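Protein modeling request. Please complete all fields; requests missing the sequence field cannot be processed.
Requester role: graduate student
Desired output: 3D structure, token encoding
Chains: 1
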Amino acid sequence: MAKSDSKTTKDHNTIKKWAEERDGEPAVVESTSNSSKGGGLLRINFPGYAEDNLKNISWEEFFRIFDENKLQFLYQEETKDGGESRFFKFVSDE
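Delivered output (94 residues):
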């Protein structure tokens, strides 16, 4: 499997390590942060790349929402040309 291939994980340490290696911080979309379904739409906030409407949260809160919504983290280590990838998305575990 090439490093540019996407992987999925539910492992909190893997997710946190991947994000922090790219200077990412846990966040939610601010307009959804009071949502009744689990606390909001999760994002990783990358300085200089982020949406304007993100609210940073703790890793503890991030993983509470992640687990309650039964999500998996789909991510890529490198781009096809070997650069560091920031590609990720959250997918349902069901």
